[in-house]
Amino acid sequence: MGSFAVAAQAADTPAAEAKDKKSDTDLPPFPAPASVKQSTRLNGKVLNYTATVGALPVRDAKGKIIAEVVYTAYVLDGPRNPNRPVTFAFNGGPGAASVYLNLGAIGPKRVQFGAQGDAPSDSAVLHDNPFTWMDFTDMVFIDPVGTGFSRSLVGPDESKKAFFGVKQDIEYLSRIVYDWLLKNERMTSPKYITGESYGGFRGPRLTHYLQTELGVGVNGVILVSPFFDGTSWAGGDFSPIPWAMTLPSMAAANYERQGKTLNDAQMAEVESYVRGEFLTDFMKGRSDQAALDRMVGKVTAYTGLRPDVVREMGGRVDSRAFLRELYKGEGRIGSWYDSNVTAYDPFPWSVNQRSGDPILDALIAPTTSAMVDFTTRVVGWKVDGRYEALNGAVNQAWEDRLQTIESVSALRLALANDPKMKVMIVHGYNDLSCPYFVSKTVVDQLPPMGAPGRVQLRSYPGGHMFYSRPDSGAAMRRDVMSMYGAG
């Protein structure tokens, strides 16, 4: 297990649990898990389920509780069906709570965020989610240490060593999955892992660790806008790969601004270009002026930027520079997470952007308010503490540089280890933070392992949180249902 493990059961009483913690901090104890009966209407049918919020402890090698991980679980009411799946959901960051998948994408209730026009002051009241997975799987949303209400009970240095790195993150979160299954008597249920962004990085590693270290088989993995391979960002000034990976998403932004419909057929031309002519012309560099001229012309056409700007960049269009140039004349800034979601630029004369991302800055308020209200008022888990929807301190404390890590190897190992396991990867075309073409390249490079349909890639109009658009949210639901064998 490494340097720590998670207990399967909490102490019998709050007093015993408090004594057992021997915490380095002076925090009030968490309450016992709380539950509430709820319902949601989906396609004309009422689904009754139980929502539970609680915490599982993390112990070090000596048995001392060093952290408490909060989860939100939704379990369908009625007689227990041994064939009903349970899905464990993680968001990313590192430093993000699971609220985005929970209240934005797949949970039974949702609050709107992540689309053009959404604002921090928008209503945080939850409504039935027409795209929920509740009809075909129970769901457990897990907040890693330092996110949501989850917390470390040791000092900053020990917290960093215990939680804020790839290896330790996978070890303790895998044990949280194991312990929830054990505590809730779901060890024999079909099991799925889903993760968004860095949660998509976690997905393959969690799956392989569960398979090989904890003895838990995973039936399927759904990766939402995954950060898959940080090494695709690297390569220095002489590698064409980072520039090739983002160009299709820039083209998607340009196409959408022109009112074109985004689909795989629309994107096929630019994908073919970056796989062929772009790579060869890029590598010729200054030795072939005609190649440079061709590259500048093509990149200009695909991005919609001015030719002189693309030429100044040598055909190497950085994604953030692309956003800056795209909206410079409009006094607006575009989001790295969905390049066609914009906000006013408070410093339009500045060479560099001096404000936050239009999507990230706008979603913190509605997601935080909605989740805190749901947890404390609706479910009745009366916690005393700050809710961290997106914790920058955790991100800063992370010991691994994202440009040096990848989870593709873990994906290959997990697929080879279990020939029945399925994988679905879903993206938004406009996402510059986790470009869909990285995943497309990863899938195309996987060796044959069983049926061709075991690993599927789907892309939809929108960005990182493409599910904020109704048509894309509905399309993802249909595709995932099919993977689960429910549709």
Write the layout of secondary structure elements.
Layout: E1 4-6, H1 14-21, E2 34-42, E3 45-60, E4 65-76, E5 86-90, H2 99-106, E6 109-110, E7 127-128, E8 138-143, E9 151-152, H3 156-163, H4 166-183, E10 191-196, H5 198-214, E11 220-224, H6 241-257, H7 264-275, H8 277-284, H9 289-303, H10 307-312, H11 319-326, E12 332-334, E13 342-344, H12 358-378, H13 392-397, H14 408-417, E14 422-428, H15 436-445, E15 455-460, H16 470-484
Parallel strand pairs: 5-8, 5-10, 10-11, 11-14, 14-15
Antiparallel strand pairs: 1-3, 2-3, 3-4, 4-8, 4-9, 6-7, 12-13
Biased composition (Low complexity): 1-16
Keywords: Carboxypeptidase, Glycoprotein, Hydrolase, Protease, Signal
InterPro entries: AB_hydrolase_fold (IPR029058), Peptidase_S10 (IPR001563), Ser_caboxypep_ser_AS (IPR018202)
